[in-house]
Design goal:
This protein has 242 residues and is α/β, with parallel strands linked by helices. The chain contains ten helices and eight strands. The protein has one domain: Aldolase class I (TIM Barrel, Alpha-Beta Barrel). Helix 9 links the parallel strand 7 and strand 8. The protein is globular and about 45 Å long. Bound molecules: 1,3-dihydroxyacetonephosphate.
């Protein structure tokens, strides 16, 4: 089964930095078992798209968000059609940072996901519990609510990102990741959505990526911090591709 290696650059790497970064990355994967997806900020999408094309890379392009509207008076927003136009195949939606800093609701994530699907891309829909939810044993309840409210169809990837694991160096145990992924799959099945890839995100690094990817319920990873340093990104490529 192909595993997704999704790089979320968040609000990092402007045009110059993006190109310098890409020029230092060993992009030719040595096997076909992994699909790499780079999700730069909007401002670097066009440049990264051209760079990947010029290198005849099989890496794909993704965005980090989009509007739930097609066009019109939405200052500062970017539509799914615009992203498709730039060469995106994927769009991350409902990341916990957007849910936290932009008060994104499940309903809004669902609306965006529908636009992404309509324009022939795949939404990567993020869900995850806070540390407080985790401590109180509410993980599955929180995820069930997020999934039921924000996933519109089976044409998507679900990203399980515990909020407390993002950028902290804390990672759930492998057993916990497996259990939660199984629960997410059960919720998806109850909603009638079968065979949805479920990727894990939160402090994925070169030294833990293979252990996480080795589990059959894990269809890939969503990487933040380690995907913007050429050294750690090359180490990740080496780990998974060799
Ligand atoms: P880190 O890998 O930096 O923990 O970030 C994870 C993340 O938020 C990816 O979307």
């Amino acid at each position: 089964m192909t595993k997704f290696i999704i790089c979320n650059w968040k609000m990092n790497l402007g045009n110059q930095d993006s190109i310098e970064f890409l020029n230092q990355i060993e992009m030719k994967s040595l096997n076909n078992d992994h699909q790499f997806i780079i999700c730069p900020p909007y401002t670097s999408l066009g440049l990264v798209a051209n760079n990947l094309k010029s290198k005849e890379s099989d890496w794909h392009l993704g965005a980090q968000n989009c509007s739930d509207q097609d066009k019109g008076a939405r200052t500062g927003d970017i539509s799914a059609a615009m992203l498709k136009d730039l060469g995106c195949n994927y769009t991350i939606l409902g990341h916990s940072e957007r849910r936290q800093y932009h008060q994104e609701s499940n309903e809004s994530v669902k609306g965006k996901a529908l636009k992404v699907i309509t324009h022939g891309m795949i939404p990567i829909i993020c869900v995850g519990e806070t540390e407080e939810d985790y401590i109180q044993g509410k993980t599955i309840d929180v995820l069930t609510e997020q999934l039921s409210g924000s996933v519109p169809s089976n044409q998507c990837i679900v990203a399980y990102e515990p909020v407390w694991a993002i950028g902290t160096g804390k990672v759930p145990t492998i057993k916990e990741i497996e259990t939660v992924h199984q629960s997410i799959d059960n919720v998806m099945q109850d909603l009638g959505f079968l065979n949805i890839p479920i990727v894990y995100g939160g402090s994925v690094k070169p030294d833990n990526i293979n252990q996480i990817l080795s589990k059959p319920t894990v269809s890939g990873v969503l990487i933040g911090g380690a995907s913007i340093q050429p050294e750690s990104m090359n180490a990740i490529i080496k780990e998974v591709c060799l």
